[in-house]
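Re: weekly structure request thread

Next one in the queue (424 aa):
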Amino acid sequence: MTLKNIFILLLTSFCFLPCVVKSETYRFELENGDSAFMTALSLDLEGIDYVQDGQEIVLYRLDGDKKISLPCQLDNGHTAKLWFIPDRIIQPNEKLILEVSTKKEVVSQNQAIALTDKTTITLKHNDKNILSYYYGLHDVPKGINPLYKKSGFVHPLWSPGGKVLTRIQPTDHYHHYGIWGPWTKTIIDGRHVDFWNLAEGQGTVSFAGILSTVSGPVYCGLKVKQDHIDFKYPGESKKTVMTEVLDIRASACQIEDKTVWIIDYTSTLHNNLASPIELENYRYGGGIGFRATEQWKKDNCTVLTSEGKNREQADGTSARWCDVNGQTGKDEYSGILFLSHTANRQHPEPMRVWPLNSAGGGEMFFEFCPIRHKSWIIEPQKEYVLRYRMIVYDGKIKTENAEALWGAFTRPPTITKINNVEDK
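Done, posted below.
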């Protein structure tokens, strides 16, 4: 694989938290695997004493006697992690030394920003939109069944060049909402409940609360709660049978001198009932679904999977990644590279890919569908996680780059604390 002309530099943001490592400097060794593509990386700060006292934590890559400053951002979640942006491509099997310390200086400017208005949370990189998450209840056109009203979906998704790649409420499928993932054939206590086909009036997936948003120098993001609501639960007018935490983080990088968006999309499901819920095997449901712009038809929209399948061959097959690309103007193309994590159920993951004779002259629908061939039992009071990454780009993406980006998603480098360095 030749990667000499590929340079990845993440330019993302998050709400930066200034902090300090008390009177010590810490060094870490980064040992890369077999992928030369680097997205945002993190190192573990557990066991390191840091406090918020007006100083900013800083990170350097050591190059001989030189210290090269790297943009970084603290994530104080279940564990303390420091996310950072590599200053150059890290070659396969390469080792680097990183140094963490503190410095009294102006906090890094946010480049990636999460903005909330009355109906949406929009993730941006500088002045460019990445995506909007719609948490308001989106109405339907006059004369359309009001059961199609919905909240809790991604639309628009923009390419780095500003092209809108998603579509909602198409006339052939009013229940299609940009990027979303309801379950279709669900069995609850022996009853069938459909959260996907909204006109059936059996169920829906709705926004239930903003858990957090974040902006900063490395990435931006949002975390929301979504309820899977059963409209006909026995003895109740409606009941939330499953809750979902949807975590979306976005950043930017350069591939062959072109900006791309890197979007991590993580769904965590929780069964609220005392009995199991069965997600019955079906060609639609769950995972991550994508209804493409109406511009993409059979003559100008292509598919390529990690297993070499094209649009005519891909439906029902499984893949590690799938590239969906379409025309957005005269001699202009954009695409989304969908990556499935190795920890996902049924990975390599089954897909639903609309064939060339689909609605509207061959329009595009894509989905990673973990229940395509085998039902899934969601046990009570347990959590189930699905992890995806989308690489959103303009133009075309090379197969070797798609493969390397999947490797960077699933096989990040190992970063180990090696020693403390006394401040002088």
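The chain has a mean pLDDT of 90. The two ends are 45 Å apart (CA to CA).
Next request, please.
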